[in-house]
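quick one, four chains, predict together pls
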Amino acid sequence: MAADDGHDPVHLFVERMALTFAEVGFPRMAARVLFTVMSADDPLTAAEIGERLGVSAAAVSGAVRYLTQFGMLIREPVPRSRRDRYRMPDNPWYEGTITKTAIYKTFIDVASSGVDALNGPQTPAGERVAEMRDFFIFVQEEIDSLGERWRIRRAQTGHLRPGEG
Amino acid sequence: MAADDGHDPVHLFVERMALTFAEVGFPRMAARVLFTVMSADDPLTAAEIGERLGVSAAAVSGAVRYLTQFGMLIREPVPRSRRDRYRMPDNPWYEGTITKTAIYKTFIDVASSGVDALNGPQTPAGERVAEMRDFFIFVQEEIDSLGERWRIRRAQTGHLRPGEG
DNA sequence: CACTCGTTTCACAAAGTTGTGAAGACAGTG
DNA sequence: CACTGTCTTCACAACTTTGTGAAACGAGTG
């Protein structure tokens, strides 16, 4: 079966989710591949991914390379075949994606250098930038602890996964 | 004084912060204008902004229109002059920028439609997507309360601002 | 060790984005 | 009511990003 015509609700979900991720800076093709695999009950080969999305093998190649780098996708060779299969990891990648992002750290570092450049928080400008920096520090701390709070909550609502608790 | 050569540490901060914001999807020129004004002790006119950044009046015009829309920048006419001045709002725009973002809502909505498309959380794929949806719901709740927790913390550390408390 | 099939790399083309210059609009002033 | 200075709009050009086709690569197989 070739790439569908876009009216399959699952494919619609894949494309919409990918677009939404792309909106926050995630590579578009990588997102499409990620959600294609996520939406499949069984692991997919590169060819199957390309077929479902109607994109070239080259595009799939680049996307899976990107995704496997961060453990968002797992590649495993198919026994007695040259193909590889791709599947989702058991531990949810989105926790790490949200909590391990270095972007707030960058905000904080750059803002700190800004405070210095403005000769400390004495001037109006320096004070504004210092306040922003402090806010980002706060957010960073909150995000750091978010993953753990999530796991606690899941445990409380009876959603323990193997290895957790 | 014309646009500096890029070695002014304040300008360096402006450009680096703007680049960092651009990385998470914020319009680049708008970010440059925002941090230029933020780094100035006094309000700036459109001409001054353009001069400091070395960009055209058109670029400034588009950027300030974008920024004032969300209250990240305040425009006020200069008495007995045709110029407008731009200054930072007193209430920090970044709180709202982070906490009022609709992006998690979109994640949740799209993921929900995905669960439906996959016939509920019974299948492996449906379960994965449902888990992701639940995580984003959790994050959304956390973000919703983040602004208030920040204000509480600021109050505790003696940083009350007018109107707060 | 040549063949085959799947994957990867690379140069390029298509598409999208962003900022510019120039013209236009608009408000205050003489 | 024409003039001047400021801001806005718009078509376009420069740049960036993204995915393709084609060729190269490489692992398994006879």
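Chain B has a mean pLDDT of 90.
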